[in-house]
Amino acid sequence: MTDGYMNLHRRAGEGAFCVWIAINVPAEIFSGFENVVYAVPESHSAMCAGKGIGAAMCEKAEKIGYSMDLCSYARIDIGNAADGGKDSPTFGLPKPDLLVSNNNNCALLAKWFDVHHREWSVPHFIMDIPFCYEPQKAGDHDYIVTQIHELIRFIEDASGQAFDVNGFQGAVHHTWNGIRHWKRFLACARHKPSPVTAFDSFVHMAPFLTLRGTPELEAHYSLLADEAEKMMERGDFPVPGETYRLFWDNIAPWHQLRKMSGRLAKMDTNIVGASYTSCMGTVEGSFDLYNWDEKDPFDYVARTMNAYMCPHGMELRHDSMKKAIEDLSIDGVVFASNRSCKPYSITQIDQQKRISKQLNIPAAMIEVDHADVRKYSEENAFLRIEALLERIDAQRA
Amino acid sequence: MDKKEADVIRSDIERAIIGQKKQGKKIIGCFPLYPPVELFESMGLLPLTLWNLNASIHGLTESDKHVQNYSCGIARELVQFVLSGTGELLDGIFSYNACDTLRNLPEILALGNKDAGRNIPMLRMHLPQVNPSQVNPDEYLKNEIARLIEATENAFGTGFSEENFVITVKKYRRMRSLCLDAEQLVARGALSFGSFCSVVLANYALPVEEQIKHLEGLIAGKDTGNPPATTGVMVSGIMPPPAAVVKAMEKSNLCVAANDIGSLGRSYGYSPEITTDPGDYYAELFAKRRPCTTLLYQSDRRIQAFLDTVKRSRAKGVVFSGEKFCEYEYFEFPYLEKRLKEEGVPTLFLEFSVDDTDNVGAYSTRVEAFAEMLDKTDGGKEA
Fold first, then answer.
1. Which residues of chain A have pLDDT under 50?
2. Which one of A116, A142, A346, A353 would you mutate to disrupt binding with B, by most B Cβ within 10 Å of its Cβ?
3. Deepest of A292, A344, B168, B223, by most Cβ within 10 A of its Cβ?
4. What is the reported pLDDT for B12?
5. What is the mean pLDDT of residues B357-363?
6. CB–CB contact A128 B330 (8 Å)
7. How confident is the model over B124-128, as a mean pLDDT?
């Protein structure tokens, strides 16, 4: 990851055309160009939060007028940009030549990127991906493919570089192969006890965002899956006394990864799966790998444009989670009600009731903010988690 | 219709709906702000835009069972309205993609209604949000309109007719034109902004013919002569400030020289050319309507249009009415304030949440202080 960021700065400094993207913009496109690099502000914000400087960066944005109620990823990024990347663990991000947002994960991302668009007079390309209440419709798929082609044309015009579909095709294959290894890694969680935790998956999802379409991504996930399988073989488990297997719904609490995982481990509790990372490489209504025929790369990226949770309505999420809960032998679900992510959180109250009732499985809702530690109370959260564990015990009895 | 009558309607939309149903109308609740009302009304339905519902709901107990309290008041009120008793009166619900909160509401409403034994058809449409200079949205939008027509016909046993569509479009043009006339009277100080808001918002619960009648009544007899001495301001937000705050503004001699309010000016500010083709009609309407923060592709045009409106209306200041948790608005406020500062236009930022409709003391003080500042400094410039 460090190499990735330093390479990004180096190439941008040497004149590469730099694009800032939302996480589900198909970054493989950029591999079809000679000299285009990309940065993912959301991922950078998550890293800042993980390094413990999220709140400080949020404050920088708040000082220039951005409400504390706005997404903490956005506040970190805006604060970082306003301060020239001063406190960033990656020296910030190189200034973009183009912004590409995408509204299916969250529509506010387009408003967020508008902030930079206006401040720096940088073009902003909006990808409009219809929200899915049911699986992606053929008409929507075609609409997305059209936009991908228009985006490529836009980059050609703006960068003066020609697009090479072979580069793009190769990149999509790297992503496809990488995702297959990712699924192999996640599948290890079926083992009891699990050799992996959701916290591992939170950390290791980063390459999927910032190194998409690269051989490094493929290699990383292959190594990750191999290592997880070896850990299983030698009986090396992060929570050896695993008594409670939980499932996490929402974005990772980046500022709590070590603390939360450690405290849970002491309680013999392992969050073995998470909707946030299970959805990578999938399509609506399931966490199963989308079975690509490896033919048309445009078809693949358009079809998997919704490979996240937020673009899906409640029914689709329910179907995905239900299967994962059964597959992973989950004892209880933690719904993390995330103040900074309304698309993820808004349906959780109803979802919690349905999952609990239909699967006869205890669930608890805790309050978090994925990147602003000021909106998180550890004791409050663990009070509810402990109560959840007690309910699991009572159910077992 | 005067303010008092309008407020009665707004405080009891259920009664207004019952009145319409007695006349055989089928009511389709719509959100967010810009549903294809002409289309629905031409097909014999009464579209009820589910916005500004605070006067008509009592508490949020039903909503709180479904939606977190860090959702905006609009969403919480909407859920409360639909899933409480009044929702039983709806014959259908229509939604299109808007913000991240509202796009998740259709399923919450469908599930809530199902649990309550109510089987209400849910209609949906995806409104393209691409920048038209980057991707042409027209074909996609026209397909969506065609799909919506078919879905509406199937759900309600009604049919689309080009003739009825044109008749309804003409009525909505008349209604919007009257809104603009009334807006000008407000700007001249000849009509209270409070009365104007009440009537326009009450109209959301009524068929377009009645809306026209009420607007004509509102305008009739208003003094269009020399305006009273007031200080003109522009008001901007997704909803108007609460009535009590508007009253405080008027008491401080502030008159609304222009409004950039989602449920007011942004809604009625543009009428497309009359056409028999609803696809063409809505393609033009969404491309050219007064810019709104909820329409992602309009952001560039919005900033310039906003500044032009301030200039054209000669507003001495701008009052931002912030609906807490409305991300779309809040991402733009800082930039607009910055640009206005550069132009020497003072701003006042007021934030309202769902519980703030009565707590006006603090707001009144700030409004009064703002008005005094505008008077003393002749807008942003020293007198």
1. none
2. A346
3. A344
4. 85
5. 77
6. no
7. 97
B 26-65 residues inside an 8 A Cβ radius of A: 65
Question: For the CA atoms of chain B, what is the radius of gyration?
Answer: 20
Sort residue A15 into left (φ over 0), alpha (ψ -120 to 50) or beta.
left
A61 touches chain B (CB under 8 A): no
The ipTM, to two decimals, is: 0.94
Write down all domains in chain A, each with its CATH number in brackets.
2-162 (3.40.50.11890), 168-396 (3.40.50.11900)
Of the candidates B71, B97, B130, the beta carbon closest to that of A147 is on B130
% chain B with pLDDT above 90: 81
Q: Where along chain B do its domains lie?
A: 7-161
Mean pLDDT, chain A, whole residue set: 96
Confidence of residue B329 (pLDDT cuts 50, 70, 90): very high
Q: Name the minimum distance, in Å, from the CA of B70 to any CA of chain A.
A: 7
Q: Does B291 touch chain A (CB under 8 A)?
A: no
> Using CB atoms, which residue from A64, A140, A342 is nearest to B71?
A342
| CB-based contact, A71 to chain B, within 8 Å | yes
State which CATH number among 3.30.450.20, 1.10.10.10, 3.40.50.11890, 3.40.50.150 fits the domain covering B7-161. 3.40.50.11890
Whether the bond between A193 and the residue before it is cis, its omega within 30 degrees of 0, is yes
Which residue in A has a C-alpha nearest to residue B64's C-alpha? A349
Residue A239 CA to residue A196 CA, distance in Å, equals 9
Contact B107 A313 (CB under 8 A): yes
| Long-range contacts at B113-117 (CB < 8 A, ≥ 24 apart) | B113/B82, B113/B83, B113/B87, B116/B83, B116/B88
Residues in chain B: 383
- CB contact (8 A) between residue A346 and residue B334: no
Task: Say whether residue A319 is in contact with chain B using an 8 A CB cutoff.
Answer: no
A180 in contact with chain B, both atoms CB, cutoff 8 A:
no
Which 3-state string (H, E, C) describes chain B?
Answer: CCHHHHHHHHHCHHHHHHHHHHCCCEEEEEECCCCCHHHHHHCCEEEEECCCCHHHCCCCHHHHCCCCCCCCHHHHHHHHHHHCHHHHHCCEEEEECCCCCHHHHHHHHHHHHHHCCCCCCEEEECCCCCCCCCCCCHHHHHHHHHHHHHHHHHHHCCCCCHHHHHHHHHHHHHHHHHHHHHHHHHHCCCCCHHHHHHHHHHHCCCCHHHHHHHHHHHHCCCCCCCCCCCEEEEEEECCCCCHHHHHHHHHCCEEEEEEEECCCHHHHCCCCCCCCCHHHHHHHHHHHCCCCCCCHHHHHHHHHHHHHHHHHHCCCEEEEEEECCCHHHHHHHHHHHHHHHHCCCCEEEEEECCCCCCCCHHHHHHHHHHHHHHHHHCCCCCC
- Closest CB to B130 among A114, A128, A349: A128
